[in-house]
Amino acid sequence: MLEAFGTQSAAVSAPSADKKISLAPAGMDSGKKLLQKTGSALSKRRFLVALDLLCLLIASIPFFACELKAVGPFKRGFICGDPSITYPHLRNEAIPDELLIAGGIFITGLAIAVGECCRVRIQSTSSKSFVRNPYISCLYKELGSFLFGCCVGQSLTNMAKLGVGRLRPHFLSVCGVTYASLNCTPGTYVATVTCLNSDPHLVEEARKSFFSGHASFAMYTMLYLAFYLQARLTWRGARLLRPMLQFLLVLLAVYTGLTRISEYRHHPTDVLAGYIQGALTAYWVAIYISPMFKSCSSDLSADETPDSPLSPHHTVC
């Protein structure tokens, strides 16, 4: 009887051992598949980030081509006796280039960083993109869209400056000549002029009046931030807070452009064109590129309940 029991035990244990042996390769296969999926996900993330950086680089090529003096402006002439280019050259600027760029990017970037942080914490935002951290994902999309608009806007501005070559109001002062020294007949077209200024950089910059880079950049950054406040500042306790902040931002952009007229660095039409270009770029990026106005309802499935993580109280970034 004991011998029979031993035989039955051996018969039962044998299939169990075979089952364990057969499960081992299956576990190894699942581990390999998991590693392969993880590796492919990392490769996809790197590819998408590299693609975004490539798009930023391509969009900024005209801007850097102008800043690095790779291409010179069009050598436009002028009408002898034209009073619009006889204003004095003022060396001091109310808003220099460094302050404009640092202020525009810092103010908008800081507001976006704070806004996305509050959005993630208050609305329990999750991420379905290749960046799993919800804050990093939202910040990446918003700042990436904003910086892309900066590159596009400034590239368009510099292309216009190089292609048109309109003379600034202080061109003759920078050039170091007068109509009397040129001995030209009033009303005639002067195709070329030999400037007496020893600084070629100032002379070249005096040929880049249209359109105003200060006006376009200030209008883009401030109006984009106004759009961002419209999408993210949803607190209804103070009804006039949001429009007041938006008004101040647009006022700051308008003031920046007006200083370029009062300092004789741009014609009024240059500043107006800069306003229009900056406003159109901000509208294009905010509405069609940035996710700030995108609805999250399409991310909800039919079987989700109000208590589920993807309920209307939960935002997908």
TrEMBL record:
InterPro entries: PAP-like, PAP2/HPO, PAP2/HPO_sf. GO terms for cellular component: plasma membrane. CDD domains: PAP2_wunen. SMART domains: acidPPc. One of its GO terms (molecular function) is phosphatidate phosphatase activity. It is found in: Membrane. The chain crosses the membrane at residues 47-65, 99-118, 210-228, 240-259, 271-289. The keyword Transmembrane helix applies. GO terms for biological process: phospholipid dephosphorylation; phospholipid metabolic process; signal transduction. Gene3D superfamilies: Phosphatidic acid phosphatase type 2/haloperoxidase (1.20.144.10). It is a multi-pass membrane protein. Keywords: Membrane, Transmembrane, Transmembrane helix. Residues 143-286 form the Phosphatidic acid phosphatase type 2/haloperoxidase domain. Belongs to the PA-phosphatase related phosphoesterase family. This is Phosphatidic acid phosphatase type 2D. It comes from Cyprinodon variegatus.
